[in-house]
Amino acid sequence: MIRVLLLPIRALLSWDRWQEIFDTMSRNLLRASLTAISVGWGVFMLVVLLGLGNGLENGMKRNFAREAANTITIRSARTSIASGGFDVGRLITFDNRDYQRAQTVEFVDRISGLFFVRGGAFGGSEMMTRRGTKANAFAMTAVHPDGIYLEPHDMVAGRYITESDLRERRKSIVVGQPIVDFLFEAGENPIGQWINVGSVAFQIVGVFHDDAGADEERMMYIPVSTAQVAFNGQDHLNMLTFTVGNGGVAEATAATETIKQQLAEAHSFDVKDSQAIRVQNNVEGFERFSKLFWIIAVFVVFIGGLTIGAGVIGVSNIMMITVKERTKEIGVRKALGAPPLSIVSMIVQEAVVLTAFAGLTGLAAGIGVLAAMGAMTPPGGILSEPSIHLSAGIYATLILMFFGALAGLFPALAAARVNPIHSLRDQ
Questions:
Q1: How far apart are CA 356 and CA 399, in angstroms?
Q2: Rounded CA gap, 420 and 357, in Å?
Q3: What's the predicted TM-score (pTM) here?
Q4: Is residue 35 within 8 Å of residue 354, measured between CB atoms?
Q5: Which of 68, 121, 83, 70 is closest to 275 using CA atoms?
Q6: CB 3.0 to 4.6 Å from 228: which of 130, 183, 233, 282, for a disulfide?
Q7: pLDDT tens figures, 202-216
Q8: How many other CB atoms are found less than 10 A from the CB of residue 125?
Q9: CA-closest candidate to residue 333, choices 426, 416, 407, 413
């Protein structure tokens, strides 16, 4: 087998050999074309399915990137189980002490409480924001300094909310780029400028950018302590969100259960009440999706492998027929002194050429279809950059050529055993 795969360089570069291969294929053009189509179709489907799987995975990861993949979010809601002398339907409201207790929980890395500001009332919606004669409604959220680690925002100017802002209840505000574009003239520096949100003046200390687009950038962030004073929030929080660093599902679950127990004890609700607080565990979700896409990839490779295998078997059958039809020719070659390796290399090279041509054609067609699909897919959709890695295409081609050589080997060995006297007499 090794000797067959390591064919003599002279034979590979021989124009007569290549001319002979092309002449043989042209005499059986329909048969060779159908065989090539079966192999090429298998490669094409494998490439397209793998590319679509990668595109779905990229889209999933991009959606998860809206929040850190290791983020857990706990949102307050209403009870559904009577507990502590309270009836069902009671609204749970977090406070600063819940945030402080959660900070001490094992595995918690970064944590922020969130308070959604709405015109002085508890809740959340857009706030009318003014500067000079310009005014528009933008969403505003009060956060702790670690909030920058929990959202995929990139600071393009200034800074984020700091501990000093929180401690001194500064009227500092961080705004998205579209807000700056609306309120300020081109080239004007927004850092240090004042804007009015509702009836309260805030000083811009930072500007951020978000790859998800303008909808995610139409946001403003202020310190939690400032919002609780300026907008009658008392010490209320709507949500706790935290990360577990490099921790996995076990660490995320342990931290979540501890914080849930703390909240249940502090606010007198049943810890088993799944409606009292809503938990979103990105760690578990990301692991589930990762396993799902791994299974999909294995399934795609399995189906694609079977399809390509069927094509390779077709190549082997075609080569067997070719050997049968060329029995007299092979007998003449052997009678004239052609060594067995020459006969074997001739058949194997023909099989490799057929499978390589079909495989490369299928690979190119698959990559072209993926590129077209990527160009037509809107940004931010569930499908993002469907493609395959170049190394995967190269490996697939090399493996296909190997199996092409293997498909031609057995007919080639049969041809090498042809008795020239019998072949000439039978013909």
A1: 10
A2: 32
A3: 0.64
A4: yes
A5: 83
A6: 233
A7: 999 999 998 777 777
A8: 12
A9: 416
